[in-house]
Amino acid sequence: DDPIFPCKLLSVHTFSFSFGLGHFLLDESWMASRIRSMSSSVSPKLGKILVANRGEIAARVFRTARRMGIPSVAICSEGDKQAFHVRMADEMVCVGPSRLVDSYLNVDRVVDAARSVGATLVHPGYGFLSENVDFAMALREAGIGFVGPSPEAIRAMGDKIQSKQIALEAGVHVIPGFVGQVKSAQHAVSVAEEVGFPVMVKASAGGGGKGMRIARTAADVREAFRLCTAEAKSYFGDDRLLIERFIEQPRHIEIQIMADQHGHIVYLPERECSIQRRNQKVIEEAPSPFVDLALRTQM
């Protein structure tokens, strides 16, 4: 009941399906005790927190900040000045016009807003700038804490080639494929033949289902290489590609990890994310009804 940041969101979503499952490795009471333990290591003088988001996630952060006695600041666009999340905060800063690129997605304006109100922490919520390495770096340079991963972690995990290399170095299994940049269409064909069809040609910097093509023949690989290279450069400004084996009818399972700067780490129950449309998740359910105790323990 006294998380550092709004972990009740996790209780409502992640644990809503878990009651009555006696085999669960991680129940809500255990989670609450671990979060309280993590909280005890944090100085009560957290200063002022600015939330670089809007809607329900911003509202949850403000609710927790108020319970903890932390002054809070909302940002908004010119069209959001009367929004619910603004009314929940102690202060408000307008960061620009209604267009997202001119307000919530504008790194300079959000950082300037945090600096102008004397914020010591910025909570990015999800979406918007939460995975933007330039934003995390700009806050670091401004001496403002970022409630999220380090810029180095964001950069590494946002690069599929680098993240697979890190996983392999850590002894984590990855999908078979070529761990490195595919240099040409002919190189892509050679890799695909070695890996075994079908394969997925994928943008290293990709996301949101963009820059991905399934290839079942050498001709498919050449065409996928051409299309993915152009799409990756257009969407992400990075045309590097990788190839890995395409898994037919997979189960997409995610396990969330929460850690703080004091070395406390907890994992949360897995999420079933297999129902997708155009390579984007439609429904996420936790725990997965397809993961048993043995597999959960192994993961």
TrEMBL record:
Q: Does the keyword ATP-binding apply?
A: yes
Cellular-component GO terms for this entry = mitochondrion
Looking at the record, the residues that make up the ATP-grasp domain are: 164-272
GO MF terms, alphabetically ordered: ATP binding; metal ion binding; propionyl-CoA carboxylase activity
Task: Cite the Biotin carboxylation domain residue spans from the record.
Answer: 45-299
Keyword Metal-binding in annotation: no
**Transmembrane parts of this sequence:** none
Identify the keywords attached in UniProt to this record, alphabetized. Answer: ATP-binding, Biotin, Ligase, Nucleotide-binding
Tree of life domain: Eukaryota
One of its Pfam families is Biotin_carb_N
Which InterPro entries does the annotation name?
ATP-grasp (IPR011761), BC-like_N (IPR005481), Biotin_carboxylase_complex (IPR050856), Biotin_carboxylation_dom (IPR011764), CPAse_ATP-bd (IPR005479), PreATP-grasp_dom_sf (IPR016185)
Query: Under which name does UniProt file this protein?
Result: Uncharacterized protein
Q: What is the lineage of its organism?
A: Eukaryota, Rhodophyta, Compsopogonophyceae, Compsopogonales, Compsopogonaceae
